[in-house]
Structure formats: structure tokens, C-alpha cells
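Input C-alpha cells:
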């Protein structure tokens, strides 16, 4: 357990929500959500493309970061994963099953030579952090 002495996350911008998650690669199918609160689902839309659906709609995406960490298979797993880059498209506010959600499509590319989309191999981890602005309200006096 982490120390309870850590200070809570703060921001000068009102209504900031930060969501972290870990996806585990399964090859040519949708990755497994290993750890992520605020994520409804993850779907594989095409080779190296994954659609992350977040619970609720957010006003604006402030930041998105993702990294690929290699699984334990293969002698060059570390070398291959280190050359992978994860990028995200602009978020889309939509509805799924009648519920408002925000979706971000993530692209995983392999930059070992000619840049190309690549799958998350079995056991690879894709860690991400999405920072959203949840409110356009101005701070009141004293906030």
C-alpha cells in the first residue's frame, strides 16, 4: 500500500479528472483491461488500433500519455517494445447503449524501420493516463 502521507493531486484548473489504466495485450483481439477505474471497455478496431471508452462525457482532453511495456516472451521482447509508440486521436463524445461516454482511439506503431501499425503482443502492457477537464465552471471566490 502506498504511503498515506502523499498529498492529493491538485490542479489550478477546475474540474480536472485523471484516469490511469493498464491494458494487457492478447495478440489479434481486444486487450484485457488489467487495471482502470473510469474505463467502460476497450475494443480492437483494426491492426494496432484500440478504442478506449471512458465512463461519462468530459468537456475537453487536456493530456494523454501511453507507453508499451514488453511481455516476458522472446529474447528481443524488450528491444521490440522499446521501439513502439502509442498515439491517440482527438476524443469523441458519443453515446453507447444510451449512456454518454468519451472515447479515445489509440494507435500503436512500430518504429524499428518503416513505421507501421502493430499489435500488442500477448503479455505486452499498454499503460495510459488521460487527463480531462470535466467542468467549464469558473472558480468561486476563495477556491
Amino acid at each position: 500500500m502506498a504511503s498515506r502521507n502523499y498529498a492529493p493531486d491538485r490542479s489550478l484548473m477546475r474540474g480536472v479528472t485523471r484516469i490511469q489504466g493498464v491494458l494487457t495485450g492478447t495478440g489479434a483481439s481486444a486487450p484485457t483491461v488489467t487495471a482502470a477505474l473510469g474505463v467502460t471497455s476497450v475494443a480492437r478496431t483494426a491492426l494496432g488500433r484500440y478504442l478506449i471508452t471512458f465512463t461519462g462525457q468530459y468537456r475537453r482532453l487536456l493530456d494523454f500519455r501511453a507507453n508499451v511495456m514488453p511481455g516476458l516472451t522472446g529474447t528481443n521482447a524488450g528491444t521490440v517494445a522499446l521501439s513502439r509508440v502509442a498515439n491517440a486521436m482527438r476524443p469523441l463524445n458519443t453515446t453507447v447503449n444510451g449512456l454518454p461516454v468519451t472515447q479515445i482511439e489509440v494507435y500503436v506503431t512500430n518504429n524499428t524501420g518503416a513505421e507501421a501499425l502493430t499489435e500488442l503482443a500477448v503479455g505486452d502492457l499498454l499503460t495510459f493516463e488521460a487527463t480531462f477537464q470535466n467542468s467549464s465552471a469558473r472558480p468561486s471566490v476563495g477556491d
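The chain has a mean pLDDT of 79. The chain has one domain: 17-133.
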